[in-house]
Amino acid sequence: MSNWSEMDTYAKQWIKEAGKKVRESFQTELNIQTKSNRNDLVTNIDKETEQFFIEKIRAVYPNHKILGEEGFGDELESLDGIVWIIDPIDGTMNFVHQQRNFAISIGVYENGTGILGYIYDVVHDELYHGQKGKGAYMNDYALPKLEAVKVENAVIALNALWVTENRKIDPSILAPLVRDVRATRSYGSAALEMAFVASGRLDAYLTMRLAPWDIAGGKVLIEEVGGVVTDLKGNELNLLNKSSLLVGKPRLHNRILYDYLNKG
Ligand code: IPD
Ligand code: CA
Ligand code: CA
Ligand code: CA
């Protein structure tokens, strides 16, 4: 049987240690490269942080699998067994430009089900963590269950790009939502945006395309506080593939899904 409490203790210890290294890196010069396009950045710290986690996990749990954004983990064809899904720095653009508004995000899944979730806001030393069936926390503070909110009182996160001409969604679908909510926000770190939904700082977050490592930790946290996590069609996510994402408070999630995204 898996010892989740032991894994949780290790995970928190490794995340804190990695976070300290990331904060220390502010004193050193970053090596910044681009990936798929000129705005898709990666730094030596993204890579070193992923490698740090992989070394630690392999030393204690040689049978576990690892899926990491920067490719130092395993090539996975299924989520069978225990899989650590790691985004060493979510919000690399913010890390490079702002030295804030980024996070370390980790989800530990068993046969495709999220069991442990972590999002560490490194600069604020705020660790959002949760375990399936045991609630979610921000540091030592137990996050309360999410309460219903009306669309007109909701603050939602969304990238302005999706309300301009783009290849993924007709902007006329999202424009009414943007007009009807109380306010929109865009933080540039999917993981933090999910942590903010879990902690009630945001009421919902939606986006067109994310990778498993952007979502894995946040999904566990949001579900633990009664929030809903689906793609933009309302389907369950498969953490092996890229997908769109809609997370939010229970009724609000439903309203956004059926009154705006999939009307009629
Ligand atoms: C990105 C951030 C960003 C989201 C992008 C992600 P990265 O992750 O989460 O908010 O809009 O789609 O790729 O590359 O900084 O880890
Ligand atoms: Ca990236
Ligand atoms: Ca990411
Ligand atoms: Ca990343």
Automatic annotation (TrEMBL):
EC number(s) reported in the record: 3.1.3.25
Keywords associated with the record: Hydrolase, Magnesium, Metal-binding
Keyword Metal-binding (UniProt): yes
GO function term, MF aspect, one: inositol monophosphate phosphatase activity
Enzymatic reactions: a myo-inositol phosphate + H2O = myo-inositol + phosphate
InterPro entries in the record: Inositol_monoP_metal-BS (IPR020583), Inositol_monophosphatase-like (IPR000760), Inositol_monophosphatase_CS (IPR020550)
Pfam families, per the entry: Inositol_P (PF00459)
Broadest EC class assigned to this enzyme: hydrolase
Protein's UniProt name: inositol-phosphate phosphatase
Organism of origin: Rossellomorea pakistanensis
